[in-house]
Structures are given as C-alpha cells and as structure tokens.
Amino acid sequence: MTSEPRDPADAIAHALSRLRGRRPGEHGDHAPFGRRGHPGMPPWMADPSGRPGGPARIRMLEALAAASAPLSVSALGEAISVDQPRASRLVQQGVDRGVVRREADPDDARRTRIALTDDGRRFVRGMRGERREMLSRALAAFTEDERIELARLLDKLADNWQR
Predict the structure, then answer these.
(1) CATH of domain 8-160
(2) Phi and psi of 123, rounded to 5°?
(3) How far apart, in whole angstroms, are the C-alpha atoms of residue 6 and residue 87?
C-alpha cells in the first residue's frame, strides 16, 4: 500500500490518479473523457483522429512528473499501461509540442530517457491545480468522515485493481 496523503482530498486525488489508465479491455467509445478530452484540456491534448489519445498523454505527463528521474520509453510505457510503440508515439507528440524532451542515458549511450520540459512541468502543475479545485467543489457536500472513507475505499480499489 502506498503512503497516504493526510488531507482526504489529496488522498482521493492520489487514488484516482493511481486508477487512471488501468482500464481493462478496449477504450473505444467508453474512454473516460469521450473523444474530445475533458473540459479545460488544452486543444493539443485531444486527438484529432478520434482515437482516445488525450488521457494517455495526460498519464504520460503525470508519470514523468511523479518520477524521481527521467524514464526510458519502455519504463514510461509500463508506468502508463501502454505498449512500447504507443509510448514512443506519445513521446514524439510531447516532444513536438515542447512538453517533454529526450536526453541521453548516462549509463547506456544507446538509450534515451524522457523528461518533462519547463513547459511540461508548468502544464502538469496547472492541470493538478485545476483538478484539485474541481475535486474540492465536488467534495463540498461530503462530511469529513465521508471524505476520509471515500479516500480509504478508493485507495483500496487502486491497490487491488487488476491490470
């Protein structure tokens, strides 16, 4: 089990982020934000081809923000539950948009690692702040005990979710 944030809203946001990207089966029309992304998502995050790519891009940025060091494409793919070719495409899209960069792996010159750019870090901070604000509004009708219980249950669900 992971360490739990003290504030129930933080714990709920943390558990929800752990569940993101762990959807069994095909995404299809059942992608969590539909085909256009969530309200407030920058236009570049929505995939114009109609494929549900926006949430995977967000998961990529969140995984890089949470990592203690730059990640290989394979490690990034594993972190966001996509195969290596899909992870490579997501990285290229992020590079093209200036939110991620490739850098040489100091341990193996044949490999590259992926890291957030300053713009990518700013985007993730803004996205987290926006999500935190939305979550706080949604939790306003909950009692403190209900928020704590919801956080506990979501964390338990995230711990036991089958990939």
Answers:
(1) 1.10.10.10
(2) -60, -45
(3) 33
